[in-house]
Sequence to fold (506 residues):
Amino acid sequence: MGWSVPDAIRLALAIAGKDIRAELRSRTALLSAVVFAALVLVVFNFARDPTALAAVDLAPSVLWVTFALAAMVALNRAFTIERENGALDGLLLAPVPRGAIFLGKLLANLAFVGTVEAVTLPLFVLFFNVDLGHALPGILGVTALATIGFVAVGTIFSAMAVRTRFAELMLPVLLLPFMVPPLIGAVQVTARLLDGRPLSEMLGWLRLLALYDVVFVTLCTMAFAAVVDE
Amino acid sequence: MPPDNAGYMVAAYVVTAVILVGYAVSLLARARSAVTGNSVKREA
Amino acid sequence: MSGPTSARAFVRSGTALTVLALLALAGVYVLALGFTPIEARQGPAQKIFYLHVPAAWSALLAFSLVGLSGGLYLWLNDRRLDRFAAASAEVGVAFGVVMLTTGPIWAKPIWGTWWTWDARLTLTLFLFFLFVGYLALRAALHDPSERARFSAVVGLLGLLLVPFIHLSVYLFRTLHPQPIVLKPSAPSLPPEMLRTLLISALVFLLLYVGLVTIRYGLALAEEEREERLDAA
Fold:
């Protein structure tokens, strides 16, 4: 392959930029994902008994279930748009490294899901009366770690699901088992952060999250070619 | 004295037999019909 | 060797193996129920162990082979690997159902609850979901090349997920120890129990091989029919 690493990175960024600009122009998907996340938070509020369980005990789980569901909605949208536009097919005709295309899609999806999370977090703080304060940088960090994991596997699975008739069902069925380890880790770390626990108590989980990201981003980058090429 | 829970044991042994034998039989039926069907041309 | 005759050969030899294995399974039933001592603390229900554990091992083996043959398929592009993966997945589901039904039936008398999120049961549940997802994807894809490639990726990724599930459930459990009334299996099994367990595991393995062989033959027959229809 005649592509050097910097060129491949430039390609990935170009693809990501194109997708992000397209999404910013239409904005409907972003808005629907945000509204969806907000509604999930509202449902959670009414789904619990405030006298039985303090908000702060459930808070990490509520936040992460909301993030996970919103990520799934966002991922489905991303490739559906792609299928409608057919832009990927044109790109695939050229001998560009498929891994770079995957990373570009991954970055665009991360930007999208990240934006939804960025809007959901303040809503969460508001609805559940959670005091983030000192925990905020940690929460941002663990959110980034876990989201990379979801979105890497979600990007490759949505590329496959979109070729089936019931893509909206197929993606969750395939993706949810893969979201569980990052989800467990994220909830554990978030709970400890909100409790003000020392870093030493979270290291094991953070290492798990980081390892998950490294393994699955690498694998999905390598496997993407098998999904888009004959 | 060991607890008296033989009922669970029987249930598990019966369920396992039903699942494994049931699957084997149904698989065999599908395989037989596919193999004999190939000697006859079929409509899609 | 290709053509309808080889599919028939697989089905025939698979049937012979399966019948043999099922007869042997009957033998295991007799051995476990009649000739293996009852565990004093857990009672007769402990004997479910001789079915649950081999079923779990077989399901895990089936799934590992789905993942491995998927990975090999992506590398070697040999259709036989894809056919084998499909066969192993379906047979694995059967063992998975045995695993998921005998698990709770065993848990109830021993632990007092039908379900517990201990590392073993949780992993069995995940394995089942991964199998189901894999088979659902295969069923939803009609182009053979797409189906083979996509399910290979899912199988391979799924196999690599298993250690992460195990690790996260283990980390979770060590932080949240659940009260355990009785230990499910003693750290060192008395020799007769070990013997029964190993014999049962071998019989389950034989059954796996027999069923996969039949299922492989079925896949081959279906492929040949589709090719004939396409040519017509």
